[in-house]
Design a protein that fits this description.
Length: 280
C-alpha cells in the first residue's frame, strides 16, 4: 500500500543521461522516474535495454511520457495514423526499458461531437493495442492522461470509459490532478473536492485505486484551462489535501512530479505524504 514518487524526466541536479538520472533518483531517495519522449521516440533499442537493466538494479519504476504531438481525434487520417505510431513506438522502446506505463495526451476534440468522442477514442486505442499484440509487446499499459484544457479530450469519465472497454491491464489512465484543477477553473480547493474525484474513479472499479499513476504540479489557468505548470509551493492545488484524500481511501501507486522543480517537489510530496500517513 502507499505510493512511490519520482520526477518527470532526468533530475535537474543531474546533468547526465537517463541512466545517470535513474541512479541520481535512487541516490536522493526516490522510487520512480518518468522518461520523456516528448519531442519524439529517439532512444535506440540498445540504450533502452541498458536503461531497463539499470532501473531494475536500482529498483526504480520506469514510465514513459509519449511525444506531445498526438491527436487521435484529428479530422486528418494522416495525423491519426502518425499519432498511433508515436504511441506504439513509445510502448515498444519503453517496454525494452522496463517501463510499465505509457502516458499520452489523447486528443483535441476539434470538430468531433463530444458524444462521439469516447467511441472514436476507443477505436483508435484498440488499433494501437492490436498492433502491440501483433508485435508481442506485453506488460505495458497505455495511460491516456487527464488533460488541463477544456478543448482537450481527457476527463475522468472519458479516460476511464476507454479503460473499461479494454481492461486495466491494457489501459489505466494517468490522473493529473493539477490538470483537473485547471480544467474546472480551480475547483480542487478542499480535501472533499479531491475525494469526489477519487470516488468518480472508484465508480469505474475499486481496482483502479490500487494501481494509480498520478501526475501532480501547481497550475496556472485561465477560463480555457491550463496555462502553465508551477511549483507545488503555489498550492494551486494543495498537495496536502490530495495526500490526505489518497490515504483516507487507501490508494496506492506512483506519483510523478511535473512541477518545474521536478525532483525537489517529488521529494517534498514524498515528505508530505509520509508525514500525513504516519500522523494517521
Amino acid at each position: 500500500m502507499g505510493f512511490i514518487f519520482g520526477p518527470s524526466g532526468i533530475p535537474l541536479r543531474c546533468k547526465g543521461d537517463t541512466i545517470e538520472g535513474i541512479e541520481c533518483a535512487r541516490d536522493i531517495g526516490l522510487g520512480a522516474l518518468e522518461m520523456g519522449f516528448v519531442q519524439g521516440v529517439r532512444m535506440k533499442e540498445d540504450t533502452a535495454a541498458r536503461v531497463g537493466e539499470v532501473a531494475r538494479k536500482q529498483n526504480i519504476a520506469i514510465s514513459v511520457h509519449a511525444p506531445y504531438y498526438i491527436n487521435l481525434l484529428s479530422e486528418e487520417k494522416e495525423k491519426r495514423d502518425a499519432s498511433r505510431v508515436r504511441i506504439f513506438e513509445s510502448a515498444r522502446i519503453g517496454g525494452i526499458a522496463s517501463a510499465k506505463r505509457i502516458v499520452f495526451h489523447p486528443a483535441f476534440y476539434g470538430k468531433t461531437d463530444r458524444k462521439l468522442a469516447i467511441g472514436n477514442m476507443i477505436e483508435q486505442v484498440g488499433m494501437i493495442l492490436d498492433e502491440m499484440k501483433n508485435s508481442k509487446i506485453e506488460g505495458v499499459v497505455l495511460a491516456p492522461e487527464c488533460m488541463g484544457k477544456i478543448a482537450q479530450f481527457g476527463t475522468i469519465e472519458e479516460n476511464f470509459s476507454v479503460a473499461n472497454e479494454f481492461g486495466m491491464e491494457k489501459v489505466n489512465p494517468c490522473v493529473d490532478f493539477g490538470h483537473l484543477h485547471a480544467r474546472e477553473n480551480g475547483k480542487l480547493k478542499t480535501k472533499a473536492d479531491f475525494l469526489d474525484k477519487i470516488y468518480e474513479i472508484e465508480g469505474f472499479g475499486k481496482k483502479y485505486l490500487q494501481a494509480m499513476h498520478i501526475h501532480f504540479e501547481g497550475i496556472e489557468y485561465t477560463e480555457k484551462g491550463e496555462r502553465r505548470h508551477l511549483p507545488i509551493s503555489s498550492k494551486s492545488p494543495d498537495f496536502n489535501l490530495l495526500a490526505g484524500a489518497l490515504i483516507e481511501k487507501n490508494c496506492s501507486g506512483t506519483i510523478i512530479s511535473e512541477s518545474p522543480e521536478i525532483e525537489n517537489d517529488a521529494l517534498e510530496m514524498q515528505r508530505i505524504y509520509s508525514k500525513i500517513a504516519l500522523g494517521k
